[in-house]
Amino acid sequence: MEINKAKVNKKKSIFKKISEVLLTMASKPSGFIGLSILVFHILLAFLSPFLAPYDFKAIDPSLMLQAPSSEYWFGTDSLGRDVFTRTIMGGRTALTITFFGSLIALLWGGLLGIFCGLVGGKIDDVVMRVVDAFLSIPWILAMLLIVSLLGTSTQVLIPALGFFYGKGIVRVARAATHDVIAKDFIVSARARGHSNLSIIWNEIIPNVRDAILVEGAMRWSWMLLGFSSLSFLGFGVSPPTPDWGLMISNARGLMSFAYWAVIAPIVGLSSLIIGINLTADAFAKALGIDRSTKAPV
Amino acid sequence: MFFLIIKRILLGLITLFIVSLITFVGTEVLPGDACTTYLEREAYGAALEACYKRLGLDIPAHERYLSWAYNVIQGDFGYSLSGQMPINEVLGPRVKNSMVLASAAIIIGIPLALILGIITALWRDKLPDITISTVTIFAMTIPEFISATLLILVVAIWLEWLPGIVIVPTDVTVKELLPNIILPVIAIAMIMTAHMARMVRSSVIQVMASDYVQMAILKGVPYWKMVFKHVLPNALLPAINVVALTIAWLLGGVVVTEVVFNYPGLGRLVIESISNRDLPTVQALAIILASIYVSINLIADLLTLMLNPRLKTLQIRK
User: Fold this and answer.
1) pLDDT tens, A137-158?
2) B113 inside domain
3) A99 reaches B (C-beta below 8 A)
């Protein structure tokens, strides 16, 4: 009976599995809200260039700091640019960079963690010490240093973010591997004479995949937070690219009389981060992983 | 027990050593050195020579690292390029200001987090839990610069209750800081409290579901006596470590918050020294912030060891 069940499970196509997980996530209100927000933002990122009513970089001094009206739904900013246009386009760069950044983080963090968990011994000790050291440098200092020395182009930001947010995944992947490694099927795979690589690919990865994916989803929201903070501090996206962090920092000085230019990007960024967080939580619950006691490292 | 403590301290020191190597090698490997980066276009001739000499860049890298590390151990971080004075003098007032900010946030945050966490756990899935948990999710997911900006907009600009931007010289007394500091403290305490309250909640829930609590309920121990005597001591111990990690993680958020409020602390110094490309100061800050992280974790470890009688007899953990 048990064996039959396992076989049936294995035959399930990957798409069916994904749709099952998505359905479980959407069946709870928080998961449904999170998924809807995320889907909305992703659609917006793709469609906003066609939806935008104005040019995002069109500067017009005569339209400076206009209050929201039927013509300019969210008003205009200090350079006379349409805030609505810039707000709906403001997530594109952040979403793209952090998405690919988290993929890189997932890959190198996951693989190194599995490797360390599997080989153990001296190599494991040394790697974990280095990871601990990297963890104890505040993210903002390291990111600022990298960005200020190498520049803020996409080619720098994606690997830098990916590297920096992957170190936490190393720990999670390593711990998950430790849980699996003592199980009988690994021992029998070794007895059958499988190589380390084959064991990693066929036995370990399928078993630790869920834990790593959940961690990666969580990293995505932190990475977005970190990236927007960089933009806010003036070290991220360079103007005139519309970006929420940058928009907030530019409009902040004038918010005593032009609050709309601050509120719109704030709503955009907060809703996206909350959406990703709720989705990641629902994702973890749907896969049966408890992360409620985890500290954000 | 004694060896365990020694081991923890040693591990912390090793971590700090690696951090110093990383920051040193990092600034060494990246293009340009401290002088060319700082002087930018004026990096030639006499100015460059003078800068090299001042920082000792004319001697080999490993020797420079050793002498730098030797000085750091003795508490001398070198010379600040942008401040044109010893880094120690730059750091002094900044450290004090940040300490005031952080300790005020911790003094407010920890008790509040405990209370909120316990309330949400004991009234799990009821109205108090749902409302508090929703608020904490918002408070912990929204970036620091957004919650700080919103606080300024609502409290300082619309309600005009408190000053929104801190305009004080760096070497200000604690007393003068007082009305200025309220909003930054709220901004930091809010996020910290939200993170910790969530962890206390799940920890308490876990203990409430354990066998010995069920046993106590069956034996007829009064509810509040059970909560205070059996649940809380066991629930709060594991929370100490997680709380330490959270505080350490929030160091990054403190940097952003200080910038938003223009608060003259370590965080703003981080941004200023990076904007000015003042690499010696950046190195010093990396070591200081990493030491704060390591020592907070160390304190948490030792606290857990001291408070948990079960660990006293244990020789090796981990």
Assistant:
1) 777 777 877 777 777 777 888 8
2) yes
3) no
Instruction: Report if residue B186 sits inside a domain.
Output: yes
Residues of chain B with pLDDT > 70, as a percent, come to 80
Please indicate, yes or no, whether residues B54 and B169 belong to a single structural domain of this protein.
no
A289 close contact with B: CB closer than 8 A: no
Strands B85-86 and B79-80: antiparallel
- Decide if A252 touches B, using CB distance below 8 A: yes
- pLDDT tens digit sequence for A73-114: 777 777 777 778 888 888 888 888 889 999 999 999 988 988
Q: Are A133 and B290 in contact (CB < 8 Å)?
A: yes
Q: Which of B11, B35, B145, B289 to mutate to test the interface with A (most CBs of A within 10 A)?
A: B145
Domain presence at residue B7: no
Total domain count, chain A: 1
